[in-house]
Task: inverse folding
C-alpha cells in the first residue's frame, strides 16, 4: 500500500456532507489539509437542525447553507470547505458544480437512508439512490474524475445465514427497496468502471454509530428513549445481532480507500467495512444502560418488514488491501456517543 500524493492537497467532493458519515469524513479531510466541496440537500428525513449543527462544526454558516441558489453561487466558505445545497438528482446543477471546481476525487455518501422508511416512501429512494447516483457517475465520466468511492450497505446481504458476510457472496436477494438500490449502485458503478475506466470503490457499511449520529438509528433511539423514560422497542424480541461499527473506524477506512493506492489495486472493488464483532441487541441495550446508569423500559416487538436478523462483516479484504483495522470497542463507542448526546441535548 502506498500513499497517493501524500503531501499534496486534493479537492474532494463529498456528497451528503451534512449527514452523519459525511460530516465526520469532511472534518477528517479538512484536518489532513485537503479542500472539501460538500453538497447536501438538507432534506427533512430527520431533524434538519442536527444537519445544520454539523455544518456549523465544519465552519459553515447555517443561514447561508439553508438558501436555495444555483451550483455556481450557492457556496458557503469555511477555512478549506465550500458547501452547496443541492439535490443529486438535479442533472443540470450537478455538472455546473464540476465545471466550477477542479475536483480530484469523489466520495458519494448522499442517499435516502433507512430500511423501514423505504416501505413508506419508495419514490425517494429511486430519486436519490438511483437517479442521483447515475448523475454522479455521469459527472465522473464527463469530467475525467480518476476515483469514485461510494457508499453501499451491509443490507445487500439480505437474510443470509452464511456468516461472516464476504464480498464474494451472492447478493441477489435483497429484502428491502433500500438494499435493492444499494445493490443497483454496485452494478451501475461496475458498468461505468468497465466502460469509462475510472476507479470505483464501493464500501458496504455495517451499522455505523457514534457522536453526531442519525436519530433514526438504534444507538440514538435507545439512548433517547431511556433518558426520556420512554419504552425501548426491541424488535424480533431481541433475537437480532448487528456488527456495530464506530464512526472513527468507518472514516479511517474511507480515508484509506479515498487517499491511498493499494498494491492490489483494480479499477472496480467492493469492500465490507465493519467491526467484525457482532453484538446481540439486548447486550447492546445493556451497554447503553451502563453508560447512562439507568435501566431501559423494554417493549418486545415482532420482526419488522425489510429488517434482517444479523449482520457480520468479514473485513479481511479491506485489511489486506488498505491495512484496515477497527479499533473501537462497543462499550467505548457507546460511552462516547452518550457523552455527546448529553452535551448536545443538555440532558
Result:
Amino acid at each position: 500500500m502506498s500513499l497517493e500524493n501524500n503531501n499534496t492537497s486534493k479537492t474532494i467532493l463529498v456528497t451528503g456532507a451534512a449527514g452523519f458519515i459525511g460530516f465526520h469524513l469532511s472534518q477528517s479531510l479538512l484536518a489532513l489539509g485537503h479542500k472539501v466541496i460538500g453538497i447536501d440537500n438538507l432534506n427533512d428525513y430527520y431533524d434538519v437542525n442536527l444537519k445544520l449543527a454539523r455544518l456549523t462544526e465544519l465552519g459553515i454558516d447555517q443561514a447561508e447553507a439553508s438558501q436555495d441558489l444555483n451550483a455556481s453561487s450557492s457556496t458557503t466558505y469555511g477555512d478549506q470547505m465550500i458547501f452547496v445545497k443541492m439535490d443529486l438528482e438535479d442533472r443540470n446543477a450537478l455538472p455546473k458544480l464540476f465545471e466550477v471546481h477542479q475536483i480530484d476525487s469523489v466520495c458519494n455518501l448522499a442517499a435516502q437512508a433507512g430500511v423501514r422508511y423505504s416501505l413508506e416512501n419508495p419514490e425517494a429512494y429511486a430519486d436519490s439512490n438511483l437517479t442521483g447516483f447515475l448523475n454522479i457517475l455521469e459527472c465522473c465520466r464527463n469530467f475525467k474524475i480518476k476515483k469514485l468511492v461510494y457508499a453501499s450497505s451491509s443490507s445487500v446481504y439480505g437474510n443470509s445465514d452464511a456468516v461472516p458476510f464476504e464480498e464474494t457472496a451472492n447478493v441477489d436477494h435483497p429484502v428491502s427497496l433500500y438494499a435493492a438500490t444499494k445493490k443497483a449502485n454496485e452494478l451501475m458503478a461496475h458498468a461505468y468502471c468497465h466502460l469509462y475506466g475510472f476507479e470505483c470503490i464501493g464500501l458496504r457499511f455495517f451499522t455505523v454509530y457514534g457522536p453526531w449520529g442519525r436519530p433514526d438509528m438504534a444507538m440514538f433511539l435507545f439512548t433517547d428513549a431511556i433518558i426520556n423514560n420512554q419504552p425501548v422497542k426491541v424488535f424480533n424480541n431481541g433475537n437480532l445481532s448487528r456488527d456495530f461499527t464506530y464512526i472513527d473506524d468507518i472514516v479511517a477506512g474511507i480515508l484509506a480507500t479515498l487517499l491511498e493506492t493499494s498494491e492490489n489495486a483494480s479499477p472496480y472493488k467492493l469492500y465490507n467495512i465493519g467491526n467484525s464483532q457482532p453484538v446481540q441487541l439486548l447486550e447492546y441495550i445493556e451497554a447503553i444502560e451502563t453508560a447512562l446508569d439507568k435501566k431501559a423500559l423494554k417493549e418486545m416487538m415482532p420482526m419488522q418488514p425489510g429488517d434482517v436478523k444479523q449482520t457480520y462483516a468479514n473485513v479481511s479484504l479491506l485489511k489486506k488491501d488498505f491495512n484496515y483495522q477497527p479499533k473501537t470497542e462497543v462499550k467505548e463507542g457507546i460511552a462516547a456517543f452518550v457523552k455527546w448526546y448529553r452535551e448536545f441535548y443538555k440532558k
The domain at 11-209+244-277+312-327 is CATH 3.40.50.720 (Rossmann fold). The longest strand covers residues 147-153.
